[in-house]
Specification:
The chain is mainly beta. A hairpin with a 7-residue loop joins β2 (11-22) and β3. The protein is globular and about 65 Å long. The strands form two sheets. A five-stranded mixed beta barrel has the order 2-3-5-8-7. Strands 9-10 form a two-stranded antiparallel ribbon. The chain has two helices and ten strands; from the N terminus they run βββαβββββαββ. It has helices at residues 44-58, 167-171, and strands at 6-7, 11-22, 30-38, 66-68, 73-80, 85-87, 105-115, 121-133, 174-176, 182-184. It has two domains: 6-133, Nucleic acid-binding proteins (OB fold (Dihydrolipoamide Acetyltransferase, E2P)); 155-187, no CATH class.
Length: 187
């Protein structure tokens, strides 16, 4: 099994860190992605079967995937300390800086390696990714939180309409309190 690169069936990328490493828990970071595959898609049952056979041969306890019975999907996590090569759907290497977002449909080239700790199992090291359907990472939008546009109210485009160029200038503005005296905020 060692030193053999295999391809996954296609799946949907979630939380991809393919061009910039994820550094929250490792100072040097790691490149990673979780691949979610529908059990009904081509090649998925065969791929999972190969995983199960390898785990059984090793007499290991840990399958390299999780299964969601409600959604009928398998999730596999892949990572590497090295940036994976990226290719488009035609096999052309991507050299531009792109931000691959969740929802992209991808195929991963991974290297399976056995491990003995925690009951043993298989870890997949990410080598390359082919992007079949690209979804650009764009961060969260108002729609993601269920906010609808309002006809009236604050607009970031009209921020200077509040009487100052910066929040600090507005904080130093005079304010009339209930006594009729102007009070000045000292910020």
């Amino acid at each position: 099994m060692a030193d053999k690169i295999i391809q996954t069936p296609k799946g949907v990328a979630t939380w991809p860190f393919l061009t910039k490493p994820y550094t929250q828990f490792k100072p040097d970071g790691e490149y990673k992605v979780t691949l979610v595959m529908s059990e009904d898609d081509d090649g998925v049952k065969e791929f999972i079967g190969r995983c199960d056979t390898s785990v059984k041969k090793m007499k290991a306890k840990n399958a390299p995937y999780t299964y969601d019975a409600d959604e009928r999907t398998y999730s596999l996590k892949f990572s590497s300390q090295y940036r994976p090569a990226l290719f488009d759907s035609h096999g052309v290497k991507i050299t531009d800086e792109i931000q691959v977002g969740s929802g992209s449909v991808i195929v991963c080239a991974v290297e399976p390696k056995p491990y003995d700790g925690f009951g043993g199992g298989i870890k997949f090291y990410l080598k390359a990714v082919q992007i079949l359907e690209f979804v650009e990472y764009s961060g969260s939008t108002a729609d993601d939180y269920g906010f609808a546009a309002q006809e009236e109210g604050f607009s970031v485009g009209s921020f200077k309409d509040f009487g100052g160029d910066t929040v600090a200038e507005n904080m130093n503005a005079s304010v009339d309190d209930d006594t009729g005296e102007d009070k000045k905020f000292d910020w």
